């Protein structure tokens, strides 16, 4: 089913930038990758420690994420990777340490404020809204950008409809980009796992984040699905300029995609650098392969 | 005309976002509305069976419409936002008693009697405010614990309307009767007129509810229902989403309560809005379909029709049942049906309708 755009509803200045960028991305998928790398720090984590009762999930970890890069966080199971993401988007409050995002220092904040300041994420175990369709899930990602009140929505006239259509347009572009047109109106609970992961990426993207946190985006996928997902991650990073922090266990994917890698083990940072540096670091090799005692 | 979407192309998003994207569905709705608004009054006027009898209008259609509306309100809270409430009867009572207070005036604060339509809506507003108040615990507690908190609302307001004489204008019997139903000079008295008034209310509120649940706020409600943690990380405020669901739900339930008292009962006492009413509404929503506006109508219809059928059918067949047997049968049927539906089809009758439509799309050429 092809759905064309509504003719004159959206004046140029109100069209969200994402729509135009996505159109651009479709035309020119091979943007120059090297231009995007800067030294400007988008988010920095300094001396963060997090413990649950007696269990130390993260102890004194520090690293930074630069604007425009793909930053991988790797480590053996239980190293504190997901806890780190949860700290970054405000789901856990660290006992020590400071997180600086876009120059603003903070230790405590609610997930809602992380969302408003431009951090969005996907989850290790897909956390979609199961009873809602693909379209509704992605439209829900645009909640922050929709501001028409209950009254207009109840009557569903004028401004509310115009707003709905404008955001639908953006979401449809994302749907095209992620190649999930055929499941637009299917409740996501019925979708296979690989597609759910893709819808979840779409929902996170619909927020137009500055920092996108991906928690094992390729877990449980076969080779083709991993290749598709890698392609999406690269395109998002290169064409939209979104900074991406990603947790992944597939080393091939991590080494190919990421610009810099931070390695955690038992909540501590043991290595930080380009994929090549990390790969040859003896501590990392020990952590993954084990040391003879 | 076959039930089929073939050849119906949408070229705009607004067409694609319609309530009924299929032309056949739209036509069916128009036929139904035309029948309800024009057909029924005409048939009643010419005394065509069964519409000629007052019994059908007064004892079946009127409660069906009002309870459908209340069920829509309950469905918004339970079906769409996932917040279990057992206090719907209390919110109906608040709507009814506050509408009564506004309709008869409050001399203590110098408020003259307000027009009946305004009183009914203000009754809904009061119910919405109380709904927000009793919704606040939902920010901390979920599921069964929230159900208990709303149950507290039910018992508290049962007590209030029984014991605080101000609400009943100090009537010695505790029973009150509604003021004259004067809607812009149209005195609603005959069953047919009452039916039309309620039909208008239900149509308007069903449309409003449908618009809300398919808009941004509806998506927020459903997001909270399906995965509240993820919803918060997506920038949905649980505070706003939950309390707005409580407010909208109690508003609709409150207006339904005011209609129930003013239009259906005429004179009532607190017993009319007891815990039984809350449970009845809950059953309607579960049997009809959680998270479906259509389901609210189906559930209300079913719950009302079954007892009447149990009354009529056996005596028509020549095996009259005693009143006790009938009420026991009612319990047996509702109880087993709820168990069956919760296990086999948690989305109720509305889901069965959807499945039927899916089948119908292929009929009569299944390939």
3D structure, described in words:
The complex is a heterodimer of chains A (293) and B (367). By secondary structure, chain A is α/β, with parallel strands linked by helices. Chain A has two domains: 1-29 and 119-208, no CATH class; 40-115 and 243-293, Rossmann fold, CATH 3.40.50. Helix content of chain A is 38%, strand content 22%. Chain A contains eleven helices and ten strands. In chain A, strand 1 and strand 2 form a beta hairpin. The longest helix of chain A has 21 residues, at 158-178. Chain A is globular. Residues 1-16 and 29-34 of chain A have low confidence and may be disordered. In chain B, helix 3 (54-80) runs antiparallel to helix 12 (293-316). With 367 residues, chain B is mostly helical. Chain B is 69% helix and 2% strand. In chain B, the strands form two sheets. Chain B has a two-stranded antiparallel ribbon. A two-stranded antiparallel sheet of chain B has the order 2-3. Classes of the chains: A alpha/beta (293), B mainly alpha (367). The A-B interface holds A 1, 3-6, 89, 91, 110-112, 114-116, 120-121, 123, 127-132, 136, 139-141, 143-144, 146, 148, 150, 153-156, 160-161, 163-165, 168-169, 172, 203, 207 and B 9-14, 16-17, 208, 211-212, 215-217, 219-220, 222-223, 225-227, 229-237, 244, 248, 291.
């Amino acid at each position: 089913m092809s759905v064309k755009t509504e003719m004159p509803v959206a004046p140029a200045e109100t069209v969200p930038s994402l729509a135009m960028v996505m159109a651009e991305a479709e035309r020119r998928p091979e943007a120059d990758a090297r231009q995007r790398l800067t030294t400007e720090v988008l988010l920095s984590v300094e001396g963060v420690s997090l413990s649950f009762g007696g269990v130390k999930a993260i102890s004194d970890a520090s690293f930074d994420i630069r604007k425009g890069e793909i930053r991988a966080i790797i480590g053996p199971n239980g190293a504190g990777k997901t806890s780190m993401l949860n700290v970054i988007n405000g789901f856990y409050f660290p006992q020590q340490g400071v997180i600086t995002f876009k120059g603003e220092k903070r230790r405590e904040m609610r997930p809602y404020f992380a969302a408003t300041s431009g951090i969005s994420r996907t989850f290790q175990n897909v956390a979609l809204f199961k009873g809602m369709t693909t379209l509704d899930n992605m439209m829900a990602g645009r909640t922050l950008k929709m501001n028409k009140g209950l009254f207009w929505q109840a009557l569903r006239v004028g401004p509310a409809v115009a707003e709905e259509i404008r955001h639908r347009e953006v979401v449809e572009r994302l749907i095209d980009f992620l190649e999930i047109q055929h499941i637009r109106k299917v409740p996501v609970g019925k979708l296979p796992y690989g597609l759910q992961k893709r819808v979840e990426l779409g929902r996170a993207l619909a927020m137009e984040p500055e920092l996108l946190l991906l928690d094992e985006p390729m877990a449980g996928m076969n080779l083709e699905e991993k290749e598709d997902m890698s392609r999406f991650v690269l395109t998002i990073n290169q064409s939209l300029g979104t900074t991406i922090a990603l947790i992944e266990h597939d080393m091939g994917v991590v080494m190919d995609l990421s610009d810099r890698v931070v390695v955690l083990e038992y909540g501590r940072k043991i290595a930080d650098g380009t994929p090549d540096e990390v790969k040859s670091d003896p501590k990392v090799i020990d952590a993954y392969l084990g040391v003879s005692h | 005309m076959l039930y089929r979407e073939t050849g119906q192309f949408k070229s705009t998003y607004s067409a694609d976002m319609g309530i009924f994207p299929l032309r056949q569905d739209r036509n069916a709705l128009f036929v139904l509305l035309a029948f309800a608004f024009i057909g029924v009054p005409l048939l009643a006027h010419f005394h065509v069976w069964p519409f000629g009898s007052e019994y059908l209008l007064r004892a079946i259609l009127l409660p069906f419409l009002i309870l459908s509306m209340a069920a829509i309100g309950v469905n918004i809270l339970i079906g769409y936002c996932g917040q279990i409430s057992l206090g719907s009867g209390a919110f109906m009572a608040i709507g009814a008693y506050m509408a009564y207070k506004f309709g008869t005036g409050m001399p203590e604060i110098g408020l003259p009697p307000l027009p009946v339509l305004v009183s009914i809506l203000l009754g809904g507003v009061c119910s919405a405010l109380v709904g927000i108040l009793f919704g606040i615990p939902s920010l901390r507690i979920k599921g069964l614990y929230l159900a208990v908190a709303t149950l507290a609302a039910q018992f508290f307001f049962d007590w209030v309307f029984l014991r605080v004489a101000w609400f009943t204008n100090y009537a010695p019997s505790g029973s009150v009767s509604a003021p004259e139903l004067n809607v812009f000079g149209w005195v609603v008295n005959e069953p047919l007129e009452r039916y039309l008034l309620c039909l208008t209310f239900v149509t308007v509120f069903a449309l409003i509810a449908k618009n809300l649940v398919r808009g941004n706020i509806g998506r927020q409600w459903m997001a909270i229902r399906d995965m509240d943690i993820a919803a918060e990380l997506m920038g949905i405020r649980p505070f706003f989403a939950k309390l707005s669901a409580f407010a909208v739900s109690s508003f609709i339930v409150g207006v339904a309560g005011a209609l129930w008292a003013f239009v259906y009962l005429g004179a009532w006492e607190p017993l009319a809005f007891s815990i039984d009413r809350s449970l009845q509404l809950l059953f309607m929503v579960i049997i009809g379909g959680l998270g479906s506006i259509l389901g609210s109508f189906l559930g209300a219809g079913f719950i009302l029709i079954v007892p009447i059928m149990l009354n009529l059918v056996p005596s028509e067949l020549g095996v009259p049942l005693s009143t006790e047997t009938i009420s026991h049968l009612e319990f047996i049927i509702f109880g087993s049906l709820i168990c069956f539906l919760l296990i086999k089809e948690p989305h109720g009758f509305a889901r069965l309708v959807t499945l039927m439509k899916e089948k119908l799309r292929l009929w009569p050429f299944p390939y």
